Structure to design on (198 residues):
């Protein structure tokens, strides 16, 4: 038996989680205050570059379908997959944030990566709600295999214009306006859906 959809959707935003993002929205608002005095005798801080990540290679069939620049990451699911998603069936599913300390972060997924396939589920043409629900329904402890491509420029453009899902539905019933801010419609009306999560 399928779980009640409203219950499944409530899981999506139940708790705020610490997601890492390349854009710090508070940085522009918070002045930097340095309470430590730096002396000339202090050794310079050396920041080492992270080692170049070597990703697993997709099988030849997946490489033929998704292209040669496809990376594959594989990890065991913890309490969550640790990804916040953006996009939708109109533009593709993208990583919008990665929860710090999760296997997804450790395996090298990054903000702006387009998710092409998770386990056996093709994510091309999938609506964002279905992508989120698919990731939520993977049991804790199961192996998660993700095929992705780095497309930060495309992701940035999508975030700037707000595109994601795009499809049409036709109503099969009537709905009268219950409050001044409600939407009334009649049977047979057609609506364009541009976001399946809000």
């Amino acid at each position: 038996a399928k779980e009640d959809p409203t219950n499944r959707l409530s899981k999506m935003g139940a708790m705020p989680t610490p997601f890492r993002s390349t854009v710090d929205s508070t940085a522009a608002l918070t002045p930097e205050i340095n309470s430590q005095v730096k002396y000339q005798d202090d050794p310079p801080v050396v920041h080492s570059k992270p080692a170049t990540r070597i990703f697993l290679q997709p099988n030849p069939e997946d490489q033929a379908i998704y292209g040669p620049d496809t990376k594959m990451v594989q990890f065991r699911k913890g309490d969550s997959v640790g990804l916040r998603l953006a996009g939708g069936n109109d533009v593709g599913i993208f990583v919008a944030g990665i929860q710090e300390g999760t296997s997804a972060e450790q395996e090298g997924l990054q903000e702006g990566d387009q998710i092409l396939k998770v386990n056996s589920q093709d994510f091309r043409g999938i609506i964002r709600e279905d992508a989120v629900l698919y990731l939520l329904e993977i049991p804790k402890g199961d192996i998660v295999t993700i095929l992705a491509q780095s497309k930060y420029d495309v992701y940035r453009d999508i975030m700037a214009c707000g595109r994601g899902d795009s499809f049409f539905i036709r109503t099969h019933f009537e709905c009268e306006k219950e409050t001044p801010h409600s939407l009334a419609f009649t049977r047979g009306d057609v609506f364009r859906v541009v976001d399946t999560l809000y």
Remarks:
- Residues 8-17, 23-40 have pLDDT under 50 and may be disordered.
- The longest strand covers residues 92-99.
- The domain at 60-161 is CATH 2.30.42.10 (Pdz3 Domain).
- The first helix runs from residue 5 to 12.
